[in-house]
């Protein structure tokens, strides 16, 4: 890769960070190349390249941002290219920043909505990075609350840290950015959230995802840039956090994991501006679920524990049960039997203490006996405790209403995996074939992936008649 002509001043900032991180020149070059691969970049740096950087040459393109991210992962604190004595460039990890102020948070998240609405195919290719979970969850846990979110009549504001807010043309039906936000506006945001949540419950996230993102861009952003007092502003940020988390969840459902991660981080920051600590814990739990799905068990456990610490001991029993159950899922992925069992026991005890009439946040009301049985089934499956997995999965299926089609599909695949683990091949194939038929009716990449995962488990039995029949059915359903 062509470099700029050498500068005369050695890069002492980069040298100091290399020493702090304990990298060799070759080790740093290798990590930059590996990180580039996550973003589809074929980089060919070596120890000589790093020597040139130390002498003052500036790497081109997005490489400064990649180098900064390598050090961020190693040292556990967010570093920019400038911190390394390198030229500033467009951040590779835009959207993972935990904004320093509500105004900056609006700039970051609205930029994400706008890009997703206009060119979502490109954003869907962004890689998920486990290291991108560390700084936001830490800053949420120990950061100071926002003292003020109210927004009055003000002159045009310069975006934080040089981020350009690109004006766009509005139709006559769209609200002006400085228009006063009312209680009715916030009620509309909440209603839209309920609508998209119900669509996700019935059909998965795919069908309505893009409409949700456009709504955020065209309706929610002008409200956030509008005029509002302190109380209304907190409620507005809370509604925006909920819709942004839902945009992340629907992105997760279509396997756009890097994009989903960015939505979750921004939803976490918006929840801080709202002053809603409990909802922030729920966002972290959502992030933990994504980490479980992608096989990052250690990060999943850490996120669940940060959520527990942030929510505090006075959270309603249903919320506590949810937090412990999701931690158990992380332990299950790691194969940690004792820790997983202990977390499940805490979840069960918490749910047992829940009483009818308890004040439970709307986002936690889904967590009931059926959901706990589902979580237990997943955990026992991951721990290869197949008899217990089958029992819990069957109970979850019995308790779940037919309207919750995606949840029933995932549960049916878990039951199929448990039956396969018990040697009941015919029954396992029958259950999975039913799930494949359901997956064909949804626009959910996650649902198809569940079915494909079961299919991979069938490889040792590929010559059995039941497996051949199953594969014919799946091919007809999913292609």
Automatic annotation (TrEMBL):
Which parts of this chain are annotated as the region Disordered? 147-180
* Protein name listed in UniProt: Regulator
